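Bench notes, afternoon.
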Amino acid sequence: MEYIDERPDEPALWRRFYRLWQPYEAELRRELGDDQAAREAELVLPRLATREALAVTLRRPSGGG
């Protein structure tokens, strides 16, 4: 592991996004069908309170494939 970038503000960004998404949920369900894509805000929003967002940079071992 070469670097870990903690992103503490990212869950708040997604929270805002999904709150904007929710008023259009019925329209999205009509267009996308009643699957996970249409229900994404409903599924993901409750999980954001405990989400830890990280960007991880890995280095491939030299000589490895």
